[in-house]
């Protein structure tokens, strides 16, 4: 789900880049890094807790920023294959029991036969109804957009002011 930002005064960026490429790169890098970190926080805070040592979906959500003169890209994502099912939900299906037993033990603090019984009930419900998507990426990125827009506008204004532009 891409987020597109339009900074006020963006047309002045080409001229700013010609006059002070290092300052422009610094400001854009700062804005991008702060924006991606904020988006990551918003997504992680909406992600359901799982089970396992470091295997939680929330703990796997990471971010990366790639910046060069041609393009700036910020990425928030995960390498967990099941993230799509958590994000979008699933159709009815019979899930494997063992991960559900681990979840019941970690989240509900149940053990042994009771944990297995509850995990089986959860699996049967998923088999009958599927799961509802949590939309943590969609909603987290939507919640981030105002901050990201404001942060890039701030960077643009700062660059124009530093170079003495009248458009600030």
Structure notes:
With 168 residues, the protein is mostly helical. The protein has a two-stranded antiparallel sheet with strand order 1-2. It has a two-stranded antiparallel ribbon with strand order 3-4. The radius of gyration is 22 Å and the shape is elongated. It has helices at 13-19, 21-45, 57-60, 83-88, 97-107, 112-129, 136-162; strands at 62-68, 71-77, 89-90, 131-132. Strand 1 and strand 2 (71-77) form a beta hairpin. Helix 2 packs antiparallel against helix 7. The chain is built from 7 helices and 4 strands; from the N terminus they run H-H-H-E-E-H-E-H-H-E-H.
Offer a concise description of the structure.
By secondary structure, this protein is mainly α. It contains seven helices and four strands; from the N terminus they run H-H-H-E-E-H-E-H-H-E-H.
Mean pLDDT comes to 86
State the distance separating the first and last CA atoms.
31 Å
Low-confidence runs of at least 5 consecutive residues:
none
Number of strands: 4
β-strand amount: 5-15%
Order of helices and strands: HHHEEHEHHEH
Counted by DSSP, the helix tally is 7
SSE-based structural type: mainly alpha
Instruction: Characterize the main sheet.
Output: 2 strands, antiparallel
Cross-sheet strand order for the largest sheet: 1-2
Question: Considering DSSP H and I runs of 4 or more, what fraction of the residues is helical?
Answer: 55-70%
Rg of Cα set: 22 Å
| C-alpha geometry | elongated
Question: What are the key terms here?
Answer:
mainly alpha, 7 helices, 168 residues, two-stranded antiparallel sheet, two-stranded antiparallel ribbon
């Amino acid at each position: 789900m891409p987020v597109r930002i339009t900074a006020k005064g963006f047309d002045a960026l080409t001229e700013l880049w010609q006059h002070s490429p290092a300052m422009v790169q610094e400001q854009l890098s700062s804005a991008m890094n702060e924006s991606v970190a904020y988006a990551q926080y918003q997504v992680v805070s909406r992600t359901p807790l799982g089970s396992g040592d470091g295997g939680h979906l929330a703990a796997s959500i990471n971010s990366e920023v790639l910046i060069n003169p041609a393009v700036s890209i910020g990425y928030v994502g995960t390498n967990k294959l099941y993230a799509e099912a958590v994000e979008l939900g699933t159709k009815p299906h019979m899930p494997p029991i063992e991960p559900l037993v681990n979840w019941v033990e970690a989240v509900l603090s149940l053990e042994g036969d009771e944990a297995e019984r509850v995990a089986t009930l959860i699996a049967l419900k998923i088999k009958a109804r599927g799961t509802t998507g949590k939309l943590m990426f969609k909603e987290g990125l939507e919640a981030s957009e105002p901050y990201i827009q404001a942060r890039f506008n701030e960077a643009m204004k700062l660059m124009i002011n530093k170079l003495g532009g009248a458009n600030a």
